[in-house]
Amino acid sequence: MSQLLRSIETPADLRRLPRHQLNQLADELREHVLHSVAQTGGHLSSNLGTVELTIALHRVFNTPHDRLVWDVGHQTYPHKILTGRRDRMGSLRQFGGISGFPRRVESEFDTFGTAHSSTSISAALGMALASHIQGEKRTAVAIIGDGAMTAGMAFEALNNAGVSEGRLLVVLNDNDMSISPPVGALNRYLAQLMSGRFYATAKSVGKQVLKNAPPLFELAKRFEEHAKGMVVPATLFEKFGFNYIGPIDGHDLDSLIPTLENIVQLLDEGAGPQFLHVVTKKGQGYKLAEADPVAYHGPGKFDPAVGLVKPSSAPKTTFTQVFGHWLCDMAQADPRLVGITPAMREGSGMVEFERRFPDRYFDVGIAEQHAVTFAAGLACEGLKPVVAIYSTFLQRAYDQLIHDVALQNLPVVFALDRAGLVGADGATHAGAYDIAFVRCIPNMAVATPADEAETRQLLSTAFAQSQPVTVRYPRGAGAGIPTPSDLNGLPFGRGEIRRQGQRVAILAFGSLLYPALKAAEALDATVANMRWVKPLDVELLLSIAQDHELIVTVEEGCRMGGAGSAVMEALQAAGVVRPVLVLGLADTFTEHGDPAHLLALQGLDAKGIETSVRERLQPLGH
User: Which amino acids are annotated catalytic?
Assistant: First the structure.
């Protein structure tokens, strides 16, 4: 690491650097991001694309007094490095280390905790108005990507912000060229012109002069809108009440810094909310990531000199891949199937489905609410929608799940990926709550396959139902159980005994069946693979309760309101009194780290299950 980057401990140090050194700093910062991610794994393409923008924002704004709110936050590694966490990057996303996303408890420069998209404008508006109410001169800046702008929440915030007071700047980091023309000298000139005092003053004077002549004023207003619209997509955002500036090259500090300085002057003059459109390139500065930003979006450890290489041996099949294969096979067998994803084609395993069935594939953008209600509309007309969605993202569409799907009892299948702990992404991405928040909804069914084979089989079972069903499965690979090639399902709402033992019965829900079986060997316990949380196999449960002194439930989900709660409710309803030990995720947010280590800390590995059962048996005289 060169002396220049090493000299930056806080953004105040950055602001003291001579202007001519900033490009060198950007090169060193990009190199540090690349080598840090190569050692730990993490988000790469997005962070390489925000190096210059991060430098410019911290250069122009007086952070942390001025607030930077990063949308999603997976592009904040340069921000972390410049705000005192440079030497901790080796612990990124590891247990006890720094998070891969902004966290308020981690740094005063992380003004708002994020990891789900499209929240930044709302949060920044709240901060801007709070400062205005309290009489403080403080600017709030929301940095949001073009993908996150597909969410309705972003436009709800824009609608509110455009008629609000306060010092607010929204920076649209457009890294896909999706809504912008090519950038260059002309756009740089226009951006600086439109952010400068001459343009703002001329526009203000023109309005004053023409306001007493409505026809001329309206004509001038329309001319201005159409003139700007010919070179920039300004009209939409200005209709929300923002002053639109851009697009400008997000890798050009000679463009970024003067434009941001002009925006600060506009805010000082009370010009209202500002909207800056910058165009960046994912993977900027690392040719391999530029060529394939998707592959380098979230890589594991790798050698930057070599790039990503295919493993020498074939990796285990993941639950996500099992879903992707099933989706294609079922679509081939049933023309009613349609697949829906809220901007997670790769993450949810739908790349092949899109290739083979493009007319039945729908990526609705980062719009989980719309995805669910859209699926409901499709189901109303006789189609069979499958919504592939992470457990943690289904939380964002809870009203639609209840009101639009369950209340009308529509046959929508929800394939809940990332159910349970997710490792390095941490609490924001952990699917800890879906069992609890889904099973309390009438008409909803909840399946918890134990392995790859059951995932395929229970997806088929879910697809055959005339009611909504969620099938939850974890991130990564399972026990390595071969998946069948057919599309046969398993009995709806029925579990099975996997091991017969004495006195203790362990009821396993999901992939924790396998550590439960291992613990049962040491305990000589019975193990039931329950498969379904709702409808619960009450007949199997009561049979087990009759022959065992202690019932233990195991689930990779929150204990409060989860599968264990369902078991206790069923026993109570049947008038059966038995001790029940509920093992699951504690009532805390689980930190990021290695998934196996995190499960062990929760007592959900084989050793932890055995220890908890033995401790519970002691008061019973065993």
Answer: 282, 368, 396
Q: Which helix (H) or strand (E) holds 321?
A: helix 319-333
Pair 299, 41: CB distance under 8 Å:
yes
Cα 111 to Cα 168: distance, rounded to the nearest angstrom: 15
Query: Which structural domains are found in the chain, ordered by start?
Result: 3-291 (3.40.50.970), 319-472 (3.40.50.970), 497-620 (3.40.50.920)
Six token digits for residue 260:
């941001």
Closest to 276 in 3D by CA, of 284, 268, 267, 285:
267
Whether pLDDT at 218 is above 80: no
Please tell me what DSSP assigns to residue 593: S
Q: What is the 3-state secondary structure (H, E, C) of 213-269?
A: CHHHHHHHHHHHHHHHHHHCCCHHHHHCCCEEEEEEECCCHHHHHHHHHHHHHHHHC
The predicted model scores a pTM of 0.89
Least confident range from 27-31, 96-100, 617-621: namely 617-621
Q: How does pLDDT run across 103-154, given as a tens digit for each residue? A: 999 999 999 999 999 999 999 999 999 999 999 999 999 999 988 888 889 9
DSSP element (H, E) containing 362: strand 361-363
CA 136/CA 128 separation, integer angstroms? 9
Give the span between the Cα atoms of 94 and 597, in whole angstroms.
11
Q: Which two tokens stand for residue 232?
A: 């920039």
Extract the tokens encoding 353. 């489905």
**In what helix (H) or strand (E) does residue 61 lie, and over which residues does it extend?**
none
**Residue 533, helix vs strand vs coil:** strand
Look up residue 287 and give its amino acid: K
